[in-house]
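JOB MANIFEST
job_type = single_chain_structure
chain_count = 1
residues = 533
[input]
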Amino acid sequence: MEDSPRRRPNDRRESGPVVCDLAIADALVFDGRGTPPVRAAVGLKGGRIAAVEPLKSLRPRRIIRFPGKYLAPGFIDIHTHSDFSILSHPLAESKILQGVTTEVIGNCGSSASPLLGEKLSRERSRRPELKIDWRSLKGYRRRVARRGTAVNLVPLTGQGNLRAGVMGYAARPPGRVELGKMIGLLERELEAGSRGFSTGLIYPPGIFSAPAELAELLRRLGGGAGIYATHLRSESSGLIQAVGEAIGLAEETGVSLLISHLKAQGRRNWKLLGPALALIAAARRRGVPVHCDRYPYSASCTDLDVLLPAWAQEGGEEEQLRRLSDRRDRARIRREITWTDWNAVMIARLGAGGRSPREGRRLGDLAREAGIDPTDCLIRILKTSRLKAEAVFFSLSEANLIKVLRRSFCVVGSDSASRPLAESSNQGFPHPRGMGTFPRFLSLYRRRCGLSWTKAIHRATSLPAELLGLDDRGVIRPGAAADLAVIDPARLADRADYRQPWKPPQGVEMVMVNGEIVAESGRVTGKLPGRIL
């Protein structure tokens, strides 16, 4: 069997006993690199792995034994939106209790930095409690360090920050000077440690950006400066064209491409997933570095106003709200909205002012109860929430989900912000992926996809680390950072669902970040050893 343990570890040391602070013993050790597991003890010293040896070859000050359990590198969540939530909830319970030790932030074109112009105004309006006092990645690093974090963070730079900061939410190409300013901002963020660039091409202002504009920015990543993570221009009827655009940009500029949460939205578009996967496979055969990420659920979640046509989102929030109140604009919106399955839309969260009775309800049902057309119900909700509305969309194919997760180029990402464990009045009904992505993938979908533990753990650890250029994360070997997760393979499971999304998973026995225990027996310890990598 592929998961049968080797007799001795690869990294065996032939000299005397290794002195270490702590040894984790009696667990089956998966090194994350896709090699079979070993029966060994892992010695830790100074926040790093000192040795992977038989216990008799170590001289630890303390031993923790986990008989019958699996020891793996801490999981790397390659697609998150914890940029701001980590400042309010630094314990990151929803991620730590899954075994996640590193989160990639700045996805879908929106990041914590740089912040200027209309982008800064919008974030200050949305998050007044944070008292945003930084403008750049350097300033954000200082703010995170001052607050502390239980998880490590890997920042990407959002194209939406660059465009909205320089030219607002205008639906036009940038001028030469404007593009130069965006390039300058990106280069400074990369110099400060950004690991790449992201776009959200269904959201303003990314929706207004042509491929030529994106190419000018992506050329700054050429030569291994980072990844290009993209929320495609379409995940529905235009999926094939959108995948082709992303691959074309990668070939033109030489970047490493990561297609975010690859899926085909809407039953009539499910048939497009196969051709999209074939496009990716063909590009990889040509030598184009293309990967995708995906969460193991057949429902998505995003801002409710993505259902509006692009022109209705131009000019920023106030202009968008003005259109929703204008009789002629509302009539045009009704004519142009293409969504039809209104009972597949569940209102997840409305604003931040406390629980709304509409949260957790289907939009079609709300429209019928109010005696109005679903599009009018949509407009009413967007107006009363001042666009601060999120929704879960039950419009994905389970068969397609398995097709994506089976691919060796697919890594695991929750597409979720970290949040506190306890239900609170302003969380609404968040997608359960925020609490269950990694246990769900490693237990339920590992089996459904026919993956061994070795291959599944590789997808959640060293593969994303390699894409991000994190040489000392995602692996268990001497010299690597001591980011570790101990799991009980017999008990591992997610427990959150769409009605009770706050339930933590079970079977994650212990989690360590930079050598410190941040969770034990399903509870966080309160320690904050994480940092921006």
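[summary]
The chain is about 30% helix and 20% strand.
The longest helix spans residues 176-191.
exit_status = 0
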